[in-house]
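#lab-general

N.A. 3:47 PM
ok so I finally got the sequence cleaned up, no stray characters, all 252 residues accounted for. can someone with queue access submit it? mine expired

B.Y. 3:52 PM
send it over

N.A. 3:53 PM
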Amino acid sequence: MVADRVNDIPRGVDQLTDVQRRIYEYIKRYIKDHGIAPTNREIGAALNISSTSLVQYHLNRVQDKGLIHREPNKARSITLTNPRGIPLQGVIAAGRPLEIFTEPEQLIDLDRELEHDGIYALKVKGDSMKEDSVFDGDIVVIRRQDAYVDGDIVVAVRLRPGFQGSATLKGFHREKNGIRLQPANDDLKSIFIPKEKWDQQWWVQGKVVAVLRLNPLSRYRLPKQSELEAESEEDSSPRFPCSVSSLPPYAS
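B.Y. 4:20 PM
back already:
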């Protein structure tokens, strides 16, 4: 699945007036920078609104849209309500393993059906999965789950005592004596991990359930020569056939 839409603003913001939208954006920045909400006077001073009553009016309208919550008669009580988005937790290697990702860098605002516990996103670095239509610079949406089947594109993580952890994006395949991590690139070799080493040092942290294409003009899949020559009419479409989006992710 390639997501065909990435919303760059939360629902409700498009219903605000220009002043209300600037107030909302100021509140978000202030909370991010200071860890607490601004007062009505600080909002007015920052946006050249002379009357705190007028600030109060606009805050009421922003709250009516479900974007903030306030405690009555309590200073600095503004909170953002249910900030939308899937956490973008760093970069995943589609090539040689990279250092393991840690804290979320931002949120990507998607349709609600993708937003639930166990879902996160990573930016792809490398082209080892390009023949499965996962390209350098794409965003992959990952779902944590308990079981995986052969052919799943997964986040494979390796941890060794005394070393920095690493993670890579590859196709998952069980072999008789271990696990094969398979690139989707004829120029690259698969990685085979013996069962004992896999059990001690590796695990799967999730599978790809969607791909966000942020720069579609340079992304397309060239057919292999074998596909061009094949007489079979079997469908050889990419793993994630769908339209793509050129919109940037929404950063909270």
